[in-house]
Amino acid sequence: ILDSRGQIVLANAAFAERMDRKPPALLGLDAAQLPWRTRGVLGPGTLPWQQALARGEAVLPVAMSLENPKGEVLSFVVNCAPVLDGWARPKGAIATFDDVTELERSKAELEQALVELEKSRDEIRLQNEELQILARRDPLTGIANRRAFLERFEELFATARASGSELCCIMVDIDHFKQVNDTHGHLVGDEVIRRV
Question: Which H or E run contains 160?
C-alpha cells in the first residue's frame, strides 16, 4: 500500500522477502526509487501506481521487473488501484505484484530451445539435401550417376512417348583407359576422367 506520494506504508512479507528485506525496512521508501524496469504499455518513468494516483483509476496488468539486492532480476505482473477519499480523490494506491520470475525463465528457456530446434531442423534439412545430391552424383566428376540418370531418363522417355517426339542418348567411352591407369597411375586416370 502506497500513500499519495508513492511512499510505501505497508508491505507484505512475500514482497519484502523477494527484496531480501524485512517488511518494516520497506516502510517510507519511495516505491519509484526501487530499481524498476517497465516493459510494455507504460512510457519510461511512468509506474503503475503513479498512473493510478494521477488518473484516479486502476492500471492493470503491467509487466515489470527489478533487480533485488542479490543481483537477481525478478519479473512481476503488477496491478494497481487508487484508494479514493469521499470526494473520489486519490489518497494512496494498492499495488499487487504477482511474481512470474520462474514463468519468465521457463519461457526464455523454451524460446531458446525452439531456436535451437529450428537451427537443428535447418541443419538436418541441409544435410538431407546434401545426401540427396551425393546419392545422385558421382563423387569424382560431380555428374549425374546411374541412379539419377535412370530416374531422369524414365521421365524424359515417358514425355517423349506421350508427345511422339524423339529422344536421343549419347554414350561416351575412353578407349584404352586401363593403359592410362597402368602407365601413369590412378590419380592421373582420375584427372583424365574428370577432364573428359
Answer: helix 146-163
Provide the 10 A C-beta neighbour count for residue 2. Answer: 26
Angle at 37 between CA 36 and CA 40, to 5 degrees: 135
- For 74, residues 6+ apart whose C-beta sits below 8 A from its C-beta are 18, 65, 66, 67, 68, 99, 101
d(CA 105, CA 116): 16
How far, in Å, CA of 189 to CA of 171, rounded? 19
Residue identified by cell 546419392 is: 135
pLDDT digits (tens, 9 = 90+) for 54-107: 989 999 898 898 888 888 889 999 999 999 998 989 999 999 999 999 998 899
Closest by alpha carbon to 32, among 45, 43, 18?
45
CA 6, CA 49: separation in Å to the nearest integer? Answer: 7
Is the separation of the CB atoms in 80 and 49 below 8 Å? yes
Between the alpha carbon of residue 6 and those of residues 10, 72, 84, 133, the distances in Å are: 11, 24, 14, 68
SS3 168: coil
**Distance of alpha carbon 92 from alpha carbon 85, whole angstroms:** 9
- CA–CA distance, 54 with 196 (Å, rounded to integer): 85
